[in-house]
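Technical appendix A lists one of the benchmark inputs used to test multi-chain prediction within the project. The record comprises two sequence entries:
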Amino acid sequence: MAAHATPRSNESKPIAALLVVAAVAIVGFLIVVPLVSVFYEAFSRGVGGWWAALADDPDTRHAIWLSLTVAPVAVAINTVFGVAAAWLVARFRFPGRSLLISIFDVPFSVSPVVAGLALVLIFGRQGLLGPTLAWLDWKVIFSWPGLVLATTFVTLPLVVRELIPVMEAIGPEEEMAAVSLGASGWQVFTRVTLPNIRWALLHGIVLANARAMGEFGAVYVVSGHIAGATDTMPLRVEKLFQEYRQPASMAVASVLAGLALVTLVAKFIIERRLEAESRDLEAARSLENTRLEAARP
Amino acid sequence: MSIHVRSISKSFGSFRALDDVSLDVPAGTLLALLGPSGSGKTTLLRIIAGLEFPDAGSIEEDGADITERHARQREVGFVFQHYALFRHMSVFENVAFGLRVRKVPRAEVTTRVEELLRLVRLEGLGGRKPSQLSGGQRQRVALARALAIRPKILLLDEPFGALDAKVRVELRQWLRRLHDEIGMTSVFVTHDQEEAFELADEVVVMNHGKIEQQGTPDEVFDRPATPFVMDFLGNVNVYHGRVENGRAFWHGIPIDYPAYPHAQSREARVYLRPHELEISPPGAVANRLGTSLAASIVRVTRSGPITRVACRPHGSEQELHVDVPTEMARGLQIKLEPGTYVAITPRNARVFIPGPEYSI
């Protein structure tokens, strides 16, 4: 982008060049070089070695499998919650509404480790619900439900945050029109609301998924770090690294990094669709406004 | 289908949008709800549609109480102010929506939608998205969509508000024809009195959540029931004076007001419409003492077929506005220019006694 910028005067040319170099250097050293080195290390023994590191270790296999099951469940919970919460906040005015919007952001501002500890305090054996859960013989902490809870907690704001501004910009009129035409609540949602927010929703889902796959802190606390049982991919990377099994650690890390790159591409495509739609919305608005102006006596 | 609104009240927080409003809309009528913004006209329309529910009162359609009935079951066509077209659907799908959610067979949907697109003169545009249409075309899609479900009642919220002047007049006449052809009962909301008077069989003037007057356009225009209606219907000259023995006086000219026959004088306001004042050479004043008054012209502005003359009656500081048809102004024996002395004769005047409910 910076390279395309046209400096207004000759004096700013050296400064512009300096800024471009600085930006490229920072991006290069902080992002590109480390990422490339992860892949370099992961494939240092060839594709066969990489594959063996992933597939031959049952604990690693389990960790990949666990991540691939925990993340979708957390994202699904998030999607349902996100749509419902965004609809509530965008369509209704009620006391405590802005407080609620702030609460949605808590998982962003709280350290994931604290979030994990909070979950242990509630669901742990000594926790608030500990006796009840013990009586029901349900294990939450140090098991799969705990992982889902922790992952859901840290990704909670991603879908709601994405949807609220879009739903507010679209407004309730189309939904009311659908109701007046005889649509049921479900028909309004599936035929009008959902198609209108689909790109924003997908964007939120992609971001939430990326965050869910990569979550470390909260999951670390609630998982108990049991190899072959509650280790997700990021936890497995750390454990392998601590055990001086760097190539194996890097192989798992490269899977995570690969997922991140896929996310990046998906995000890029979706953002272009979102931009196109908001441009349409804006064009429609300005057309209406000019007409309104023209109609005024 | 006739609509009867009985003693409807509706508040939003501390704001009283509708205050004990009753209204009858006979079957087949095209009725205009006219009023300034915040007068409650849109709220009333939404309550009739079932998009809003009243705090008190009831609504009947052909004698059946529908107050509790959900918008979905009311068989009412609603056209929104900014059309509210489904942006992700084609024009065809927009019009088909009401039929699709009713599970009408596919073939029947196609026939009906094509018939409607012909009716609103949008044949061949069924595949377009709303964003590819002009304002007037969008408006017609919104109408076709509302008509698809064969509503007994058509409700329109500021239907022409967002269109430019030429398209507006065209669509207005077209809507009138459409209403007559289909034979529905239609109610539309507007703040534009010209629109209300040109289009409607009945005009309801609203203000502060209450109905000020209901009647045919002629009734409302010729016999405004309240000072508000008088004011709202156009620029008007207002004078403060007193009324006694069934008469008020305006610059010495008596104006009958039989509603107040008492001898004790009381504060009153005299309303004179600019087009109901006559301008003539000053000599006439002497001949018609007690019916005309002398004034001098302050300002003259032409606005197409109407020439607006601002005069100052002798001995008064308040300007008096007179509208003269430009044709007639040319035929006058005097020059309409600042400084000219003229005689002003009111052809019509109205007196209102300010009541406790009256405030401007």
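The radius of gyration of chain A is 24 Å. The longest helix of chain A spans residues 246-295. Comparable benchmark entries are summarised in Table A2.
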